[in-house]
Amino acid sequence: MKIKKRNFALVFYFILLMLPIYWMLNMSLRTNADILSTFSLYPKEITFANYMKIFTDPSWYSGYINSIIYVSINTVISLVTALPAAYAFSRYRFIGDSQMFFWLLTNRMAPAAVFLLPFFQLYSTFGLIDTHIAVALAHCLFNVPLAVWILEGFMSGIPKEIDETAYIDGYSFPGFFAMVFMPLIRSGVGVTAFFCFMFSWVELLLARTLTTTEAKPIAATMTRTVSATGLDWGLLAAAGILTIVPGALVIWFVRNHMAKGFAMGRV
Amino acid sequence: MTELKFNNVIKRYGKTEVVHGINLDVRDKEFLVLVGPSGCGKSTLLRMVAGLEAISDGTISIGGKVVNDLAPKERGLAMVFQNYALYPHMNVYENMSFGLRLNKTPKDEIDRRVQETGQILGLENLLHRKPHELSGGQRQRVAMGRAMVRKPSIFLFDEPLSNLDAKLRIQMRAEIKLLHQRVNSTIIYVTHDQVEAMTLADRIVVLRDGYIEQVGSPMELFSKPANTFVAGFIGTPPMNLLDAVIKFRGDNAFLIFDGGLEIPVPPGDTHLNGFRDGQSVVMGLRTEEITPSDLNPSLPASWKFDGLVEVVEPLGNETHVHVNIKGVKMIARSEGRRSIKYGDSLKFAMNLNQMHIFDAETTLSIY
């Protein structure tokens, strides 16, 4: 196979991109002693002990389960609230609609840390600390506006006449929304779900502050690898690799619609 | 019996009134075309009939029953949109049978109607295609088919041909006319294209700024425009509309133009009725009534004028000649084979029997 000249740069770039991930994979398959003693481009003696520990130790795998639970709840809540809101923004004109639409996005402009204290106080009062729903709701603050923006873009790409034809054909609004409209914007819904998932999955600050043990996210669990005896490199690397997997899976499903999602559906 | 009645129908958006007290009767099985420039309220009117826009005031009744508060689906009509509005995720068959499936028509009846309609429209081989696999004309046919299978009492068309290229538009125009002859339903058709209006309509309603300017058959509008707007709107190229002043000389009236051109008003029984000496008027004369004089030798000599050719637009079968007669510019029509060049001096004959005179102030027809 002949590689064209201009492709060398791309290949080089690709290697740079993948190197950290490869290195993490490399570490996750080695023992701590091996990692610390010799420099090796590939694991000489492959061991799955690090992964086994994560899959068998409840304090480890429950971190993943907790994360998946609140991320899923968050994604569902975000979509369920954002769908009607986005529909209203895309189909109706009302006083202050464009201002309100922009105001939604300003929620994303503040750093999460700003909301940390009020959230903690609020959730303590309602006894929600250390529950999955607490984290899910907190992440809605950032995900709902984003979801509204993305979905609005996709919905505005569907001509209004489709709605009107459906009414004349005899559909009620809920029937139309479920049977006609949702199938038309399903790629938008997929992309939106992906963005909600991604944000909620990688967000550490709120998730860690609002939980203690019962709903502790995986990212918080990973900090346990630091101990008096040093860092458990292999275990940390294995946990890191497993953290990438769900995101990579979701990306695979929406890969064809990603670009449109990044453009908030406005292509 | 599906006549449709507009009774003082008004549409307001906030405080702005866009449709002002429309009164109109659409007869059973009539092909009615609403035509006018963009923003004249024709689409709004149609959407009020469909139930997609609320009626601010007045009533619309279908078959004697007021439908103001009925949902779109309860009005028994079908609508075809400019952008077709086909459901992209359903194939042609599903698109066409959609409305029927919703109101629980039996399966074999649905199938029979879809197949039948598909055959009429030449879609029988496309029933399993998705809309994105169809050409513009085919999509337009599917949109029509979707309306037809429901056997509605009234069809509403909202600029259905505007997205098609010129050739296909002419073809589909004929198909819509054929459809009307076949299904024998009432059709209300909105367009901004006066040629479509003329070719399709039993009656045309000319709208401007939310008011009805004139209602009549295509020939009525063409030969007896009620005002300068209708006169200029109907017909291509548009009628020559020229400012003049009425001058009485004895028993005869003359139109005096800036620059000294004088055109006699043909004498008749009532030719002086309604005129005032010195009245400002607009003379209307269609382009085909102004020709090189040898094409119309029978016209009196006083109807012939020397003109200077300024622009020549050959169309093949005919040629439009922009001519300057004593400083008054107008468009004349000549046969296609004659060679006329820019800068030629030529005698033109006006068939003044076909002259229209409108009052300059009210724009209404007075002759």
Automatic annotation (TrEMBL), chain A:
Domain ABC transmembrane type-1 stretches = 64-254
Q: Where in the cell is it found?
A: Cell membrane
Q: Membrane-spanning regions, if any?
A: 7-25, 68-89, 101-120, 132-155, 176-202, 233-254
State the membrane topology.
Answer: Multi-pass membrane protein
Keyword terms: Cell membrane, Membrane, Transmembrane, Transmembrane helix, Transport
Q: Name one GO biological process term.
A: transmembrane transport
SUPFAM superfamilies associated with the record: MetI-like
Please tell me one Gene Ontology term that the record gives under cellular component: plasma membrane
Give the protein family.
Answer: Belongs to the binding-protein-dependent transport system permease family.
Q: Report the protein name in the record.
A: MalG
What lineage is on file?
Bacteria, Pseudomonadati, Thermodesulfobacteriota, Desulfobacteria, Desulfobacterales
Automatic annotation (TrEMBL), chain B:
The reply to whether Repeat figures as a keyword in the UniProt entry is no
What InterPro entries does the record point to?
AAA+_ATPase, ABC_transporter-like_ATP-bd, ABC_transporter-like_CS, ABC_transpr_MalK-like, ABC_transpr_MalK/UgpC-like, Mo/tungstate-bd_C_term_dom, NA-bd_OB-fold, OB_MalK-like
Q: Name one GO cellular component term.
A: ATP-binding cassette (ABC) transporter complex, substrate-binding subunit-containing
Segments forming domain ABC transporter:
4-234
Check the record and name the Gene3D superfamilies matching this protein: 2.40.50.100, Nucleic acid-binding proteins, P-loop containing nucleotide triphosphate hydrolases
Q: Enumerate the SUPFAM superfamilies for this protein.
A: MOP-like, P-loop containing nucleoside triphosphate hydrolases
Molecular function (GO) terms for this protein are: ABC-type transporter activity; ATP binding; ATP hydrolysis activity
List GO BP terms, alphabetically: carbohydrate transport
Keywords, in A-Z order: ATP-binding, Nucleotide-binding, Transport
A Pfam family this chain is assigned to: OB_MalK
Please identify the protein, giving its name as recorded: Glycerol-3-phosphate transporter subunit ATP-binding component of ABC superfamily
Which species expresses this protein natively? Desulfamplus magnetovallimortis
What gene is behind this protein? ugpC
